[in-house]
Amino acid sequence: MAEKEIPFRQIHLDFHTSEAIEGVCSEFDAEEFAQTLADAHVNSITLFSCGHHGNLYYDSKMFPEMTHPHLAHRDLLREQAEACRKRGIQVNLYTTIRWNKRIADMHPEWICIDENGALQDYKGKGYFEAGFYKNLCVNTPYRDFLKSSSEKFWKRFREMEYGMMQLL
After folding, report:
1. What is the pLDDT of residues 95-131, one digit of tens each?
2. Using an 8 Å Cβ cutoff, are 9 and 41 in contact?
3. What angle do CA 113, 103, 145 make, to 5 degrees?
């Protein structure tokens, strides 16, 4: 795919897996995964680096405790990205910002609250869905955490594009 060309067939791979689930991707084969995409004429995919539960899908040097505890392929993101790029498939990365259960549990002071001091619920429905939908406020020290971790992550990702493939 030529640079600046809009991909014809794109996939956004959504993957938010609780740390309670064991054997995550235990039967995964990166080459088969990428070949399936190529056979389907997919030319762009968004891969996940961190889901709403706060689990990373790569072997993080900066936050090793945040890598999914039951991830069978400790560097799943790297394996996926390498196999896709080998077939000319553009790789984009997704990370959660607004919802991160792990961060919300570690830093409840970073969770959005309303004018009465109550937690802001998900989409104003009056209740919280699926535990991880606690809105994180970027007008707290969470912003500094995001900035620091994002800068390091994107520096490593840029290196990854040139074959170094090391994340945080």
Report:
1. 888 888 899 999 999 988 878 777 776 555 555 555 5
2. yes
3. 95
User: What's the angle, vertex CA 83, arms to CA 82 and CA 87, rounded to 5?
Assistant: 110
Q: For the segment 56-94, what is each residue's pLDDT rounded down to a tens digit? A: 998 888 888 889 999 999 889 989 999 999 999 999 888
Asked if residue 119 lies in contact with residue 128, where contact means CB atoms within 8 angstroms, the answer is yes
57 vs 16: CA distance, rounded Å: 10
Q: Which residues contact 69 (CB under 8 A, 6 or more apart)?
A: 19, 55
DSSP 138: S
Q: Across-strand partners of 56?
A: 50, 67
Measure the CA–CA gap between 142 and 162, rounded to whole angstroms: 30
Strands 10-12 and 44-50, bridge-based pairing: parallel
Q: H-helix or E-strand containing 44?
A: strand 44-50
Give the predicted TM-score (pTM) of the model: 0.79
